[in-house]
Amino acid sequence: MKPAVSVLAGAAMLLWPALLNGYPLVFSDTGGFLHQTLGPLMLWDKPWVYGPLLHLFHWRVTLWLPLVAQGLVVSYLLWLVQRVLRGAASPGLHLLACLVAVTLTTAPFTVAMLMPDLFAPVVVLALFLLGPGRDALGFAETGWLVLLATVAIAAHLSHLPIAAAMVVLALLAGLPRRRAVADAAWVALPLGAAVALLLATNAVGHGRAAVSPHGATFMLARLQADGPAAAVIRARCPDAGWYLCAFADRLPMDANDFLWQADSPVNRDAQGRPRFLGGALISAEAGEIVAETLRAHPVAVIGAVLRNTWRQLLTAGIGDTLGPENLATALRPRIAEGFPPGELAAFDAGLQAQGGLAGSVAWLAPVHVAALLLALPLLGLAGLRAWRAGNARALAFLAFIVVGVAANAAATGGLSGVFPRYQARIAWLLPVAAVLLHASLPRRRV
To answer: How far apart (Å, rounded) are the C-alpha atoms in residues 68 and 115?
Structure first.
């Protein structure tokens, strides 16, 4: 079987939930990303990256085209990783790795969904290839990976700390020292380019050359939900004169409700009047409160981040992404205004829009849990085999996967909120990595 056919077959396998659904899987935020170019609109809470990337492929024709692109990207990355680890790629092993991913893990529910969550595992795989795996790549492959990693990192703000962790890991894992510096430099290249991309797009769209012009609002939501910021607001008000002083008695509250609930302090003032783009309006004050909270309660903040990180590590599932909630208001109008009538009809007829998708795949949840639990001892055994064989590249790959999964939990659960989809988007790398590592290591002779 030719490599191209293997990659195509792997991509098709990874997209099976969309085939079951009859339409690409979507989330309420998908509508916002479409609005970035269909409006066009610079959303206050999302980088202007994934929306334009979707448009690059859909061209107001169909959302199946960007979905196919996502499947091909992930399939090809798995092909490259296998080739780098083994020295040569096997079509059979590639299909086996993809089969494990699609039958035992949450991978297809991430790849088949039009959300930037897809790029969390892409960041880890691409940066491993650019660092410890770079010697096995061609010039064109290296250039493509730099571009892909840049877009992947910039597509979601949580990917920045994941990439930063990969840079540190590359510096620590590379041997000899000269190789470590070179690996870290190549891993840092797309991170620097992603930061530059965010600065440029925010300067044009928001008038501020910042990585996240209103990111303090999200951090405040997390810190007040955990308690420290709510304590600061109660202690400093009313003397501080903050807008949130009027709501001190309502805090702490759930972080998601704080950000998005229609009657939250962010979105409705003390007189009950709606606040358009309330999250953006409060960001300057949020920055002050966050800074004060970090000064006044550093231990409490660190403890909350660690607890939420641990909770996120243990929380991975597909249940919170497959329902029809908010799709009628947040996504359907975007499809109606930007695509042919047939596309809207296909969306409406999909199992997800009809409310039947989540129930039809609910039986997979224990399978996914079992696969993750089995992957842990298998990865430990693979690490032992790689150490005994002196296989530095296999050890580096294992480290990239483990650190990437942990960094994702810290960047999402620790700094934003604990949701099953945040860890499900990357935890699938553990079982797949176990398969690739064991297949790449020589068997011990008896």
So the answer is: 13
In DSSP terms, 274 is beta-bridged to 268
Contact between residue 96 and residue 9 where contact means Cβ atoms under 8 Å apart: no
Phi, psi (deg, nearest 5) at residue 26: -135, 170
- Could you check whether the bond before residue 340 is cis, i.e. omega within 30 degrees of 0? no
The residues pairing with 272 across neighbouring beta strands, listed in sequence order, are none
Structure tokens at 416: 């934003």
pTM for the whole structure: 0.94
Tokens of 158: 């949580």
Partners of 113 in the β-ladder: 25
CA distance 205 to 193: 18
The pLDDT averaged over each successive group of 10 residues in the chain (446 residues) is: 90 98 97 94 91 97 98 98 94 96 97 97 98 94 98 97 96 70 92 97 91 93 95 94 94 93 92 91 94 96 96 90 93 96 97 96 96 97 94 95 97 91 96 96 64
- DSSP reduced 3-state for 25: strand
| Contact in structure between 118 and 70 (CB atoms under 8 Å) | yes
Q: Collapsing DSSP states into helix, strand and coil, what is residue 274?
A: strand
Length of the chain: 446
The residue type found at 436 is L
Give the chain's end-to-end CA distance (angstroms, integer): 33
**Residue 104 parent element (H or E):** helix 91-104
| AA letter at 418 | V
